[in-house]
């Protein structure tokens, strides 16, 4: 007997969905017994499971076969909006300018560099980004296309060059499981000098002399918990353990300071963190804690050359920037245990959330959120200030930290701004401590990715230098409109919505609509120009992003009001946004498609249960739809750390009942649901494939979409429920860009067909 029942009539096999056998287990918690018929699908080593997943793919392919032409058209449209041969803006690091090049026909880029001498000593080379010809003196240091040859999946987990610029370290994953092999390349000879370090996680940093490389590893629960130092050429078994994080709620990571002298490590849970610093020029150095670990205190550290800048939440929920003398670090060096030991440079104002600080010799750049958008605030050294905005900061403190804070003239801080309604600004590639320029990226739903620079020492009254506007072929922003709208949630909270549409599309109540959402982990869904969305816009679809609670769009309080025992706000916000767009005439009530991935996939499952009548179609990507089962099992990857996001249902009956009230697989109803496409990958370590596999099986069984289905061939339902799985991929899906375009085109074809928006608008 196999794990998937198939009909006796071979001609009907393609029109009957796979039906997994029921092998019930009972889950008992807090006096509640739950029967789980499909948990056996968890074991990907079981041939019956693979047979079932293969049958799911075959069924999905059959159902979507009539969409072949539409899928092909959308794939070509995505290609038509992509400059396939392209080159990034060169950025300076050490003695070289570094570039990323893509070529037409290649799935993966090439990484190159050119020495910063002669004509390029002070300014980057001018690039013809339509040509793949190398400049005189330019060398390819890593060819990802060549490395990926013969691999079904390929991903770079990181890369870095040592201070002497003669060694390159990079990490490669060929399964999608986010477990990497470390490779060291001699850039003088081109030889691989070390490839013996395996099973590493994220983060790479060279020692000052380039003889050692620092990396991290995961434990069996896929928690990044150790930092190691490897001597290049030596066996991995001899690597030195620098730090180990034993608390299962914490994950550890690290970075190299901008001046290259210091390793900065951080262990963080969802509510608490601890940071360490360690000089990179001493192979025997031990990491020193900056401020210890105090429950509820979150902080991150930026090495500023001779002192520390610290972003922390001890003063305000919007976070602050503080200064600290390098010789003042220690386990009680924090504002909770030792008030006044950190001198505030800048406090977030109401409606702001400070995320990070980057330190330079002449200024600091504060990455933050303001008015619901990503922003950058420049704070000059006191002697550099020249006109700006009043800002909170510079409160008194004892000792050296106070005088350090006085170096930064926070009262004359100024913001980088372009004034667009949906414009967001993020720092990119500012690698030199001595640089006076600030490079940043600007984008919106109609603004292509724009790389620009300003002079941080010149004050706010200056025009930025535009280095590159990403070319989006066959796109004219004048043919579209973008807006910021505000829906009202059930509890009266105003929920921002970013919306874009063709100029000729009006809020007349007849438009097909597409609503995207995420709403977890304080991660924002910021507007950007998405080439694949143009295929929807050009078919008359109104595209919107619901910036719901649980995300990070509107600050820490916004996040706190969409997590733990307030998580249901995330779901009701999304439904309220959909209804608002109907009420305002932007969406037709029967032509709404919704999409979300990962925790956004949980959102999709929850709103399908909560308001199935509101949505015609849903795409749930790598969906976290069996949330309660996962969070109840501390042996599964990442579960323990998630308890500070969702609550601990294992120990707390209130959390258990609350999560059971929204977990998608637990709350399916016997009514008609939207058409649903669930997509995932076999090797996804963040959300296991078993979650959508179980969810889809139960949806088909319990909703009315497939009610009365005979055991013989039957017409495909108007609202099918499909499950598509990549056999060699991870959380991000397929890896090559052309394969990703095809994958995306299939998803959009499914949604567009359901909301009756398959035809391109005709020109007047």
Would you kindly provide a brief summary of this structure?
The chain is an alpha+beta fold and 764 residues long. Pfam families: Peptidase_S9, Peptidase_S9_N.
What is the topological layout?
Blueprint: E1 4-5, E2 19-20, E3 25-29, E4 32-36, H1 47-63, H2 68-80, E5 86-87, E6 91-93, E7 96-102, E8 110-115, E9 139-143, H3 144-147, E10 155-161, E11 167-173, E12 180-186, E13 192-200, E14 204-206, E15 212-218, E16 224-231, E17 240-244, E18 251-256, E19 262-268, E20 273-279, E21 288-289, E22 299-303, E23 307-312, E24 320-325, E25 343-347, E26 352-359, E27 363-370, E28 373-380, H4 399-405, E29 414-416, E30 424-427, E31 437-443, E32 450-455, E33 465-469, E34 480-488, E35 494-502, E36 513-516, H5 533-537, E37 542-546, H6 556-560, H7 568-583, E38 592-597, H8 599-610, E39 617-621, H9 627-631, H10 639-646, H11 653-660, E40 675-681, H12 690-702, E41 721-726, H13 737-754
Parallel strand pairs: 36-37, 36-38, 38-39, 39-40, 40-41
Antiparallel strand pairs: 1-2, 3-4, 5-7, 6-7, 7-8, 8-9, 10-11, 11-12, 12-13, 14-15, 15-16, 16-17, 18-19, 19-20, 20-21, 22-23, 23-24, 24-25, 26-27, 27-28, 28-29, 30-31, 31-32, 32-33, 34-35, 35-37
Protein name: Oligopeptidase B
Family: Belongs to the peptidase S9A family.
Enzyme class: hydrolase
